[in-house]
Design goal:
Length: 175
């Protein structure tokens, strides 16, 4: 079997350190939105006011793939209260994101360094952390598949490498 790149989600402690290390609005906007939505970095950079369903408190994302080639696959992502406040604030002043993929990657890396997290932290690690946290909260893999915009459950299952401790805790909580 070919070597599978192991995505390492952040632990709860690392997530707390990361969120607490955010000092500027941009840092909070990037870190908290990626942690609470599971967006791909390219989807985040392409957000505009048109993607926001204000009344329903959710984002409409046109992501990878889809029947008509690139970016025709639509999915809906609910906004947490903290993300809704950040998006409200950002889009009150701007029509689009105004940040490049490189800028977002740099912000994630800088905040992780401030938080003293030694392992590599990228926007994709935050997407993976979102996925694991959804599972920990009891969200089904089918629902997670829809939130992440995956076509196949096997793609979503890559994100589910729960630690042995998580598996044991889940067993003990449910048995």
């Amino acid at each position: 079997m070919p070597y599978q790149y192991k995505r390492e989600p952040l632990s709860d402690d690392e997530v707390n350190r990361l969120t607490n290390a955010c000092e500027t609005f941009d840092e909070k906007f990037v870190i908290w939105t990626l942690l609470d939505t599971g967006l791909r970095v390219s989807e985040f950079t392409h957000l505009t006011k048109e993607n926001i369903q204000w009344q329903e408190r959710r984002l409409m994302i046109y992501g990878k793939g889809g029947p008509y080639g690139k970016k025709s696959k639509r999915r809906i992502i609910p906004m947490t209260d903290r993300v809704r406040r950040l998006i409200d604030h950002h889009f009150a002043e701007h029509d689009n994101m105004g940040m490049s993929i490189r800028t977002i990657q740099r912000i994630v890396k800088e905040v992780a360094n401030k938080a003293g997290i030694s392992k590599p932290v990228t926007p994709h690690v935050l997407r993976h952390t979102f996925s694991v946290n959804c599972i920990k909260k009891g969200i089904s893999t089918r629902a997670l598949m829809a939130l992440l915009g995956h076509d196949r459950l096997t793609t979503t299952e890559i994100y589910l490498n729960l630690s042995p401790e998580d598996a044991i805790r889940e067993f003990q909580n449910k048995w």
